[in-house]
Specification:
single chain, six-stranded antiparallel beta sheet, about 35% strand
């Protein structure tokens, strides 16, 4: 594992640990573990669906959805699904894809959908002379057949209000946007105590089918 990957791994775990230390933020973070065969087995036993993703990477690249069912195991990468009769065969195939890179396993979230396509949200929060301000709160709808919403993978951008009303209901817009803003402010405060120099934050949120908000990732950039 290169130094860059090691640092990124450290910072991803460090950021997650900082957010988990706050009792109001922790329930919104999906359980996450380092990729090992034992962790994968236990997380599939617990959650049935997990997302396996590289520690270093953007644009939804390398993100694999893994599921366990009666008939064995399956993974979906972009629009392609492969099935495996045994856990060993699944792990061997995933290790081939990983090529020795550091990966994480995260509990899979059944996202609310727009016309059957998953949607998530990106909140950009920036520090200015007047304090922290929102630069954008947008929804990203996945391209048909994909579970990653990234725009470089054909995702569609909508306003957060459109996304929430189309995937949940128009009555949920104010509450869900308010909750995302509240989590953004709380998380920023917690992160700033540890990383005083941060000036730009990108929050990736998901809302599941029951309406619960999840924080998938926080991207930090120095000022």
């Amino acid at each position: 594992m290169g130094e860059q990957q090691g640092r990124q791994l450290a910072s991803k775990w460090a950021k997650t640990a900082i957010l988990l230390s706050h009792p109001s933020i922790a329930p919104h973070i999906p359980p996450t573990k380092r990729f090992t065969a034992n962790h994968l087995r236990s997380m599939l036993d617990t959650h049935q669906m997990v997302v396996v993703k590289p520690v270093v990477g953007a644009g939804g690249h390398g993100v694999i959805k893994v599921t366990r069912s009666e008939g064995g195991y399956a993974y979906t990468y972009y629009a392609q699904t492969k099935r495996f009769a045994s856990f060993g065969a699944l792990v061997a195939a995933l290790n081939k894809k990983r090529k020795g890179r550091a990966y994480l396993i995260q509990k899979g979230i059944h996202l609310a959908t727009v016309d059957g396509k998953p949607i998530d949200y990106r909140v950009k929060y920036v520090k200015t002379e007047k304090g922290w301000v929102y630069r954008a709160i947008v929804g990203r709808i996945a391209k048909k057949g994909l579970f990653v919403t990234n725009l470089c993978r054909g995702g569609t951008l909508v306003t957060a209000a459109q996304g929430i009303s189309r995937s949940l209901s128009s009555g949920a817009v104010a509450e869900k946007k308010g909750k995302m803003r509240e989590l953004t402010v709380l998380s920023t405060g917690v992160l700033e105590t540890k990383y005083p120099g941060i000036g730009q934050l990108g929050f990736d949120y998901g809302i599941d089918k029951s309406g619960k908000i999840w924080i998938f990732e926080v991207n930090t950039r120095p000022q």
